[in-house]
């Protein structure tokens, strides 16, 4: 069956007892054991709950993996997956991972004796060159945040396989609708379901899917042992969001494409990052490994002053940390998602002070463009910016 069908029938199975049209919320922390010698499938809700299980089955099916897991947040999923590694292990990590992932790796995991090397994963050979005798894993995010660099997933997974490494992919930006890393050779896929999968800016959640059962058993042991599970009410909200994932992304992606092309032609914009633009360096790989370009784009207006002026003037998008929602969201990576990253690291990754990220929602695209137009048309001139700032932003 095709995605549009599977996305619905994985999440709205009838409750066999009542015929209810959505999965019931089993608001129960423990389950009666009628026979001590033959315990039921569920015993204690950290270990398993039917509502959570329904969501875990749904995401595993959509990603094409054996086992799914629902966590309290994207970061809970990410940190739990990293618990598969041990002291002394080394992991090669894409340099422009989510800011919270960067913070967790450099400030928490480093204290546990697990070391990482950040590389530009869009350069496949840089990943190979970073492998050490103690390397056990490769961690990727593609397209990356916020400059949308594309990693060749098949090529990097091949390197992983040759070296016996666990390849983990954060698939938050594209979701299984557009990209299924397990089919390209990855071992684990992670989501911040707070974003497109939940889709309504009303729930914080994380998901993970393993390619095989053995790895699934290991991750289950960690999920149960660490306990960062998603509560049942939030599991239900994520399933509610998941049902409209395709419908929402079809519209939001079309909107992002139109806005990206429009921004590219606007004189106040110095650069647009969107994998759907033919001149994006990752365009061809993206077309080969994903079925869409997604709803997130970034653009540079040249300076912090001009970015601030734009944020002050736009009326429709909400200005917020986050992405992947029904409403268009504008964010300022230098001070929001990547605030945890030291300034010089940010500069190296192209996260300039003029960079703005846009996640397209479901508003009318012409209304959004009119709003962006009135804001961009009235920005202070680029020439008025301090020369050093200008040089920096255009570098
Ligand atoms: C938001 C985000 C995360 C973290 O997820 P939370 O649900 O906020 O904990 C991880 N990766 C990416 C790409 C994200 O956008």
UniProtKB/TrEMBL annotation:
One GO BP: transsulfuration
One MF annotation (Gene Ontology) recorded for this entry: cysteine-S-conjugate beta-lyase activity
Pfam families: Cys_Met_Meta_PP
Protein name: cysteine-S-conjugate beta-lyase
Keywords assigned: Amino-acid biosynthesis, Lyase, Methionine biosynthesis, Pyridoxal phosphate
Entries under PANTHER family matching the protein: CYSTATHIONINE BETA-LYASE, TRANS-SULFURATION ENZYME FAMILY MEMBER
A GO cellular component annotation in the UniProt record: cytoplasm
Cofactor(s) listed: pyridoxal 5'-phosphate
Matches recorded under InterPro entries: Cys/Met-Metab_PyrdxlP-dep_enz, Cys_met_metab_PP, PyrdxlP-dep_Trfase, PyrdxlP-dep_Trfase_major, PyrdxlP-dep_Trfase_small
UniProt similarity note: Belongs to the trans-sulfuration enzymes family.
Entry keyword Amino-acid biosynthesis: yes
Enzyme Commission identifier(s): 4.4.1.13
Coiled-coil segments: none
Modified residues (N6-(pyridoxal phosphate)lysine): 195
């Amino acid at each position: 069956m095709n995605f549009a069908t599977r996305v619905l029938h994985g999440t709205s199975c009838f409750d066999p007892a009542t015929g209810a049209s959505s999965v019931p919320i089993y608001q129960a922390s423990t389950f009666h054991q009628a026979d001590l010698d033959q315990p039921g499938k569920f015993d204690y809700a950290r270990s398993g709950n039917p509502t959570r299980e329904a969501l875990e089955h749904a995401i595993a099916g959509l990603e094409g993996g054996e086992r799914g897991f629902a966590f309290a947040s994207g970061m809970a999923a990410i940190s739990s997956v990293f618990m598969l590694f041990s002291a002394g292990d080394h992991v090669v990590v894409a340099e422009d991972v989510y800011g919270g992932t960067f913070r967790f790796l450099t400030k928490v995991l480093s204290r546990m004796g697990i070391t990482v090397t950040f590389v530009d994963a869009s350069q496949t050979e840089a990943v190979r060159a970073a492998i050490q005798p103690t390397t056990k894993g490769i961690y990727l995010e593609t397209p990356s945040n916020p400059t949308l660099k594309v990693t060749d997933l098949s090529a990097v997974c091949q390197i992983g396989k040759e070296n016996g490494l666990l390849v983990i992919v954060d698939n938050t930006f594209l979701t299984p609708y557009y990209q299924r890393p397990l089919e390209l050779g990855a071992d684990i896929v992670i989501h911040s379901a707070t974003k497109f999968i939940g889709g309504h800016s009303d729930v914080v959640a994380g998901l993970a899917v393993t390619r095989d059962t053995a790895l699934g058993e290991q991750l289950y042991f960690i999920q149960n042992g660490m306990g960062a599970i998603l509560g049942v009410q939030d599991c239900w909200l994520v399933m509610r969001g998941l049902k409209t994932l395709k419908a929402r992304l079809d519209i939001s992606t079309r909107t992002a494409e139109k806005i990206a092309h429009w921004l590219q032609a606007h004189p106040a914009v110095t650069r647009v990052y969107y994998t759907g633009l033919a001149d994006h360096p990752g365009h061809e790989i993206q077309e080969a490994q994903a079925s869409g370009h997604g709803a997130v784009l970034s653009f540079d207006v040249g300076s912090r002053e001009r970015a601030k002026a734009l944020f002050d003037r736009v009326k429709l998008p909400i200005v917020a940390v986050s992405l992947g929602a029904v409403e268009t969201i504008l964010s300022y990576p230098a001070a929001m998602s990547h605030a945890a990253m030291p300034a010089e690291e940010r500069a190296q990754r192209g996260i300039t002070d003029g960079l703005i990220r846009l996640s397209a929602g479901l508003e009318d695209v012409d209304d959004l463009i009119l709003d962006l137009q009135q804001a961009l048309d009235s920005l202070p001139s680029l020439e008025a910016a301090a020369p050093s700032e200008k040089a920096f932003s255009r570098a």
